[in-house]
Amino acid sequence: MSNEATTATAAAEAAPAPEPLPHGLGSSLPAADARAKTEGTFPYAADLWAEGLLWAAVLRSPHPHARIVSIDTTHAREMPGVRAVVTHEDVPGRPLYGRGTADRPVFASEVVRHHGEPIAAVAADHPDTARMAAAAVIVEYEVLDPVTDPEQAFQAEPLHPDGNLIRHIPLRHGDPDAAGDIVVEGLYRIGRQDPAPIGAEAGLAVPRPDGGVELYLASTDPHADRDALAACYGLEPERVKIVVTGVPGATADREDQGFQLPLGLLALRTGCPVKLTATREESFLGHAHRHPTLLRYRHHADAEGRLVKVEAQILLDAGAYADTSGEALAAAVSFACGPYVVPNAFIEGWAVRTNNPPSGHVRGEGAMQVCAAYEAQMDKLAKKLGLDPAELRLRNVMATGDVLPTGQTVTCPAPVAELLQAVREHPLPPLPKDTPEEEWLLPGGPEGAGEPGAVRRGVGYGLGMVHMLGAEGADEVSTATVKVQGGVATVLCAAVETGQGFTTLARQIVQETLGIDEVHVAPVDTDQPPAGAGCRGRHTWVSGGAVERAAKMVRTQLLQPLAHKFGMSTELLQITDGKITSYDGVLSTTVTEALDGKELWATAQCRPHPTEPLDGAGQGDAFVGLAFCAIRAVVDVDIELGSVRVVELAVAQDVGRVLNPAQLASRIEAGVTQGVGIALTENLRTPRGLIRHPDLTGYALPTALDAPDIQIVKLVEERDVVAPFGAKAVSAVPVVTSPAAVASAVRAATGRAVNRLPIRPQAAVVTGQ
Fold first, then answer.
1. DSSP three-state, residue 67
2. Rounded distance, CA 642 to CA 674, Å?
3. Three-class SS of 634-666
4. What is the C-alpha to C-alpha distance for residues 369 and 542, in angstroms, rounded to an integer?
5. What is the pLDDT of residue 419?
6. How far does CA 570 lie from the centroid of its chain?
7. CB 272 within 8 A of CB 206
8. What pTM was estimated for this model as a whole?
9. Chain-wide mean pLDDT for the chain?
10. Can you state the percent helix, strand and coil of the chain, rounding each to 5?
11. Which of 38, 160, 202, 395 is the most buried if burial means most Cβ atoms within 10 Å?
């Protein structure tokens, strides 16, 4: 052996052993796809290709409201390279679709109800040819006056055969004659937020030999999408397959079904693979947005600041079609009083159709809008009573055992007071130094701020709550299979990884239960049993629960022969770090030895306890579980220019149990940052129903430079006994809470009412200073 080799061997022997990789629940196991995403090799739908590929383009309405007089596709069909042009006449099955309510046409036929509504779709041998052919479709419109004010929708002519009113919820709780010593009122407006996914929609459709079609999409609910598509194609669901490609992040229903439908229709018509990659403008025009909301509130309190009664009117602008607006309204009405004890509540909620862009599921829908309003009301009460805003909140916070305005008892952990105390007691950040090199710390940044003397600091609070899983009788169920062969475990579950970390959690569950390090999560398609939508923390609860049950069944199969051999029950055996041991130390072996080449597998379901719809008075046990959050915001405001800088957001959250610390922290930080965008910059402007600047230059998303210092000061791990692992969803509630906290801090800095989100500069200007 050479001297060099001897030296290398000695160095290797002297080197410390490598750190073991994180393992099981409670560890920060890194995501399996992290490296591929970092290196740019992760397979997104926009990267797909197939032999004989055609390209698709969609013609969309330039008007928010118009009658279609005629559609002429002659010129488009005659263009060289064009293989198919489809309109409403070419839809072979059901002409309507929709996530919540099937009221939306695949292609507009007689009436256009919103800007960007699909009219026709084209398949051609080149993307430029497809776009030119779509533009060559001649549509004659009779332009109609759009209804864009949701308040006018009640008196306007019906915009849809189902009418303009989608849902009305009158909530009645307590004594209508109750009154308080102190009364404050407010009118609040919440703007239209776009989910702004990282990558615009894209997909590939491939015809099948049996006359069906396979679609490769970034779907977040593949089975629901498959069923909707199959109905419109006039096919049995078994002949439509959706294969989920890499999802480039999702804060809402990721894929617009109106985007998916033309894609498969063109593949069926041409007999060729067809690809469609939406532009960012098409993405803004097509997918659902957060509901713009008008809220009127009246709060009654006694002389000590305890709430007596809350009255509210909540009006959600659903846009042209219903989508999931009924669900959003139920959340808004149910949580209209926030995480506070309110003995008497009278809430009226409506969701109406207009000619504005469609609204639908966006993280924290309904709950976010009312949080901004009820927290503004709490600030008004504190000011009128001369109380510290945090103290007023503490006198009213909800706890386990209290009753929601819907009449449902809060049975899950509700440590709201503990959360608020944690952020209240957290040290405040230091004031910025008044020096030129620190100008970037001032509102507006270098050369953007006025005189440093015009900057005022404000501290505000927000308390928020959300429901987990579906509500009002939704059948929440997920199925998972765990297989073990050759010392490797595989999880099959149709829960889509949207960035919420389900695949990492599934690996951790199997590692924890079976003591197997190498765990793979199979790609998702609709050949697997359904797992439901990837929203409201569902997959942590129902899909994680299904994986856990399947893994425990495999664990029993693994341990049963050993237990039988030694005359004991499987409950007396434990698996730790890949080793199986008995309680008395008699048995000690490895999982690999116990497997002995066997193949084990099990399939299990998880279905939480049922809920019920709200009745005619808004009463009922409508929710499976609740999650809570407290945020203290610190902002600096230039009161001459109205510019706002969020200095720090201190967060305390009710998480049930921390399953992956790093992943949980990143989800909270992402939710808080999204909320900052809602509070300060994100507003999709739609004058007279037309989307203005449908791009990421006209729509101001917060960047890394806008992200504040986020301090996670406390995570309350009080396990919810009905949830698998006791864990709660963590992504939505910081989105709900942070806009209200930022607005509260701006009110504290300026003394202005701040009754609109996003906060406009003129709302933060203080005159006469």
1. strand
2. 21
3. EEEEECCCCEEEEEEEEEEEECCCCCCHHHHHH
4. 27
5. 98
6. 40
7. no
8. 0.93
9. 90
10. 30, 25, 45
11. 202
